[in-house]
Amino acid sequence: MARRIIDAGDEVTLWARRPESLVPYAESGAKIVGRPAEVGGASDIVCLCVVADQDVLDVATGSDGVLSGMSEGGIIVVHSTVHPDTCRRLAEEAREVGVTVVDAPVSGGGRAAEAGTLLVMVGGSDDDVARCRPVFEHYGDPVVHLGELGSGQTTKLLNNLLFTANLATAVDTLGLGETLGLDTTRLAEVISHGTANSFALGRVASAGGTLDRIAMHAGELLRKDVGLLEGIADPHRQHEGDAVLAAAHAALERMGVRS
After folding, report:
1. Do 156 and 86 touch, CB atoms closer than 8 A?
2. CA–CA dist 225, 82 (Å, integer)
3. Would you say domain 2-147 falls under CATH 3.20.20.80?
4. Which CATH class, in words, describes the domain spanning 154-254?
5. Does residue 218 carry a pLDDT above 70?
6. Alpha carbons 112 and 131: distance in angstroms, whole number
7. Tell me, what's the pLDDT at 239?
8. Is 103 helix (H, G, I), strand (E, B) or coil?
9. Is residue 235's pLDDT more than 90?
10. What three-state secondary structure class fits 219?
11. pLDDT (tens digit per residue) in 130-140
12. Which of 34, 100, 113, 186 has its Cα between 20 and 30 A from that of 205?
């Protein structure tokens, strides 16, 4: 994502918690700094890409966080997948210094970022989103404005919930096919060209019909996201979502991830 912004000719300042993350940008023309506050001081739009809720708050609002260096009128963009309330809490603190917040979690992974085809799910005011959209469009297509602050996060969590549930149904379907005497590789090939195709099926098929590889690379993140979604949904639902939540928990159990 950073490379796409740099290659588009925008002035970019970079900081990372892990110095090795900055090595590919040494000759890129981007300015590399040693503190998040320096990113805030150099930027009118700061894009945060970290893992969890507390990471967002630490990098943004810590004693040397980006917010401490930002000028009035700046925007913090949360690309991380976190609880919508984390974005709202950040917005309250940012408001005190005249800074606003947009949430914009993404989906598609590194290859989509390189190709400029990430799905960007955006929540925030019309004016803030309009200011950020030219940056988002360097790496995102489509860029979808879903509503007020937090709506991007809710949408991303629903996406990840359904993906997790689909993992369970995909692996169960391939397992059932095997008990019926079918070759699971060919079964997956056929389904991938039919009406039951899904991204989850492709991931399960590429892993040999199991969730082992997915558990290794994404199990904990999926557990986090399913848990966040449940925390948002419980006060508002009766039985809506029971089936998809049950399937998601089944997938997490298969992956050996405590939900």
Report:
1. no
2. 8
3. no
4. mainly alpha
5. yes
6. 23
7. 83
8. strand
9. no
10. helix
11. 999 999 999 99
12. 113
Burial of 38-59, coded b for 16+ CB within 10 Å and e otherwise, reads bbbbbbebbbbbbebbebbbbb
Q: How far is CA 95 from CA 16, 61, 147, 252, in A?
A: 25, 12, 19, 38
Phi, psi of 104 (to 5 degrees): -150, 60
Mean pLDDT of 217-227: 96
Averaged over 169-173, what is the pLDDT?
97
d(CA 245, CA 222): 12
Bridge partners of residue 48, in order along the sequence: 78
For the chain, give the mean pLDDT.
96
* 2-147 and 154-254 in the same fold: no
Q: Where are the domains of the chain?
A: 2-147, 154-254
Length of the chain: 259
Name the residues annotated as catalytic: 156
HEC readout, 154-174: HHHHHHHHHHHHHHHHHHHHH
- The answer to whether 5 and 12 are in contact (CB under 8 A) is yes
> Above 90 in pLDDT, residue 238?
no
